[in-house]
Amino acid sequence: MELLKQMEFWAELDSLAKMHCDKRKYTDYMRKLYEMQISDQQCRKPLHQSLNQEERDSVWQIIRQTDSLNLEQLKDLIELYGFPTWEKVGDHYAFCAWLIAQHSE
């Protein structure tokens, strides 16, 4: 029984180690997703200020341009790396991809 527990422990540890090593392959993917999420949020910050209609229209034009660029970059990244799953990039970066896709609509 003790031997079985040790084998299960090592199998689980091996699985966790492989998952960690696999994520290192996607470091560049994760960095790009993060940068896109930052640009997504930065262009929206002025909307929290008091703006006249002309300023608001200008901000929305920038938002639409940013969203369009981010969506194209996300498509390219998915083509290169595959869909950004939790297993590949983790929760935070998978959420970044979701946010970019959501704002592109």
Number of helices: 5
What's the N-to-C terminus distance? Answer: 55 Å
Largest beta-sheet characterization: none
Radius of gyration: 20 Å
Q: Using DSSP, what is the number of strands?
A: 0
Q: Report the β-strand fraction as a percent range.
A: under 5%
* Mean of all residue-level pLDDT scores: 85
Uncertain parts:
none
Count of the separate structural domains: 1
Decide which structural class fits the backbone: mainly alpha
What is the string of helix and strand elements? HHHHH
- Percentage of helical residues? over 70%
Q: Estimate the global geometry from the Cα principal axes.
A: elongated
Detailed description of the structure:
With 105 residues, the chain is an all-alpha fold. It has one domain. The chain has five helices and no strands. The longest helix has 29 residues, at 53-81.
Task: Provide a concise account of the structure shown.
With 105 residues, this protein is mainly α. It contains five helices and no strands. The mean pLDDT is 85.
List the helices and strands and how they pair.
Elements: H1 2-25, H2 27-42, H3 53-81, H4 86-89, H5 91-103
Helix pairs in contact: 2-3, 2-5, 3-5
